[in-house]
Amino acid sequence: MSTPHPQGGTDSRQQLADHIEMTFNEQKLSLSDDDTADAYRVTLQIVRGVLAGAGARGIVDDNQLGRLDALVEGMSEAPDLV
């Protein structure tokens, strides 16, 4: 049996990874390819930077920023789950 993850069950993490992988597959790409996975991770770092900027400018509050960052962090696991 799988161990649940604090941000959701292991199944939900796998489902998210599968969804992201299918989206990449539609573009003839795969997160199992190291270069694609690296580019994906860099993109998520950029998104986290944008979110941090939104927090600094007061566009989102600390609670919202934390929740959004947790979502992006969960997405960053996708290459390891495909």
Rg on CA atoms, Å: 14 Å
**Count of β-strands:** 0
Average pLDDT metric: 90
Indicate the percent of residues in helices: 55-70%
Shape: elongated
Q: How far do the termini sit from each other?
A: 19 Å
Which range does the strand content fall in?
under 5%
Question: What class, by secondary structure content?
Answer: mainly alpha
Low-confidence stretches: 1-6
What does the main sheet amount to? none
Can you write the helix and strand succession as a string? HHHH
The number of helical segments is 4
* Assembly status: single chain
Structural commentary:
The chain has a domain at 32-77. The chain is an all-alpha fold and 82 residues long. 70% of the residues lie in helices and 0% in strands. It contains 4 helices and no strands. The two termini are 19 Å apart. α2 runs antiparallel to α3 (62-75). The relative contact order is 0.17.
Descriptive terms for the model:
mainly alpha; disordered N terminus; 82 residues; 70% helix
In short:
The chain is mainly α. It has helices at 10-25, 34-56, 62-75, 78-81.
Task: Give the SSE layout.
Blueprint: H1 10-25, H2 34-56, H3 62-75, H4 78-81
